[in-house]
Specification:
This protein folds into 2 domains: 2-52; 77-308, MetI-like (MetI-like fold, Orthogonal Bundle), CATH 1.10.3720. The protein has a two-stranded antiparallel sheet with strand order 1-2. Helices cover 74% and strands 2% of the residues. It is mainly alpha-helical. α3 crosses α7 (170-195) and α10 (225-240) runs antiparallel to α13 (277-308). It has helices at residues 2-52, 69-75, 78-109, 116-124, 131-141, 148-155, 170-195, 199-207, 212-223, 225-240, 244-249, 263-272, 277-308; strands spanning 55-57, 63-65.
Amino acid sequence: MQYTARQTDNHVRRRTLAARLRVDLTGWAFLAPFLAAYGLFVLWPMIDGLRISFYNWSLLGTSHFVGLENYSNALKDSLFWTDVGHTLKFTVESTIPLVVLGFIMAMLANQKLPAQWLFRLAFFAPYVLPVSIMYLIWNWLFSADYGLLNSWLSTLGLPTLGWLTDEGVAMTSIVIATIWWTVGFNFVLYLAGLQDIPQELYDAAMIDGAGPWAVLRTITIPLLQRTTTLIVVLQVLASLKLFDQSYLLGNYNGGPNGSTQSAIEYIYQTGFVSYRLGYAAAMSYLFFLVILVIAVVQFVVLNRGRVES
């Protein structure tokens, strides 16, 4: 009898292991296409790019090993670090208004108003536009000769601005265009977070006599902390990848005196205009380290604030 029970137990165990194996194999089968594409188009280019960064590599097909020379030159390249500074400046100037405006727009769209869907559509619509359309719209608005913004300034009796030609204003102009273009993404995330807050909490606060500002301070903002953390992280990373709008609105040459040229734009110019792929790859990995440091600091600060709260 004991032998039969042991056989039954072993049989059940084998069947359980076989069932788990089938589930695991099915899961890996579904993951295989993604893993293959990820390895082919993400991991391999990263590994090959790191290899190229140790060579004096040209698009013309010539190359020879130079070791750490590309990295040494990049560390001493003042223009590269100036453009990194432009990117950081853009990140700081764009992240705060994009987060704050996204929150305000979500609060407005979450109210029970007539034609509420129209507000949501209007707030989100610019985000789905391709960068080329955004460029055409804002290049016209910023035009010094016939642009709508300078026309308004003239009507008000104010001095006109060289929105894309004045070194002191060009980066701010790109920030303004970027806010209009991308704030819809943060708006949607905040709106989803607001709709996830139970209405019972607001009803209880109203019964207790809490005013709108008290409700906002004690209920809405604290319960949106995780959403805000996610938005800030995504926004900083997106802003550090500045290229499209600065390249187009900067007239393909970094704007007036290179004041709007981003780090990625300089890397692109070095690799695909000057044909110095090895040097461009080295700068790419140095800029990756900058982004990594910022991400780690951001993660530590945000999580410390969450623990303290």
